[in-house]
Amino acid sequence: MNSNSNLGKKNQNMNAFRISLIVLAILALSCKEEVVPFNNAHENLVAKLLSENQILLEEYLKDDPKPNWKVFSESLDALKAGGHPKLKAWAETLSPLLPPNGTDLETSYEKISKIQEILVQIKTEVPNQSKYNRFYCPMVDKSWLMTGREVKNPYAPEMRDCGELIQ
To answer: In terms of pTM, does the model score above 0.85?
Structure first.
């Protein structure tokens, strides 16, 4: 009789273990990060940011660029306040990368490159941003987003047409 009661306890323990595993699996699956959809207001905030990026990159195409990051910075502030957790995280990542006014161009190119990589990710994930295309220059190993299909490399003044349309 003793062996039967031990066997019964083992079965109860196994069943309890299985149930615990199932409950843990259900909890793990339900704890996934909630995906918050982007609405029209979020898309408009991103469109404004990408538009300001376009203006900045066009300034870098000039012979003596004098970029003003103020409006781009304001667009980042609007992104932070826009109520979407992913947009807020991107804005918080981008803010420290903004070159201070008066920064020499060589220093700002590295920051701009990092900014462009994040903007490429934003463009990919936020709907209705197809106005902007990704370009890549293998000579400087940098990407950027601009409208149109013509290569206008903001990183290499001596090679404005160096690069290719990626998307």
So the answer is: no
89: its two tokens: 């995280």
Q: Where are the domains of the chain?
A: 40-128
pLDDT in tens, 76-130: 999 999 999 999 999 999 999 998 876 677 778 888 999 999 999 999 999 999 9
* Cβ-based burial of 85 (10 A; exposed 0-12, middle 13-18, buried ≥19): exposed
